[in-house]
């Protein structure tokens, strides 16, 4: 992602994301190693920013299980963006819950259009 190589478990991605579950179940051509199994064969996530990915990872690998590091609209918007893109339903629902509490109605309507959150489209 950007110029950063992340070394993380694929377990949460495969378990919680329909997109990654499908990607990891694709057959690997004979004689090739699967993407992501070595530093010289990374999984490329083009168009993703480190900041957004870091916010998503903070939910998978929290420093404190009793609270979230994310607190701003931008933080939760990052999670909503990637969770929607990669079909992480539980993280998407968590982002929707937190954004509903902290964002203005106008912001929610805009985000609702961007990320297909129908419950926010009727606020104004």
From TrEMBL:
Residue ranges constituting the BTB domain according to the UniProt record: 4-99
One Pfam family named in its UniProt record: BTB
Gene3D superfamilies reported for this sequence: Potassium Channel Kv1.1, Chain A
Name assigned to this protein: BTB domain-containing protein
The species this protein was found in: Lentinula guzmanii
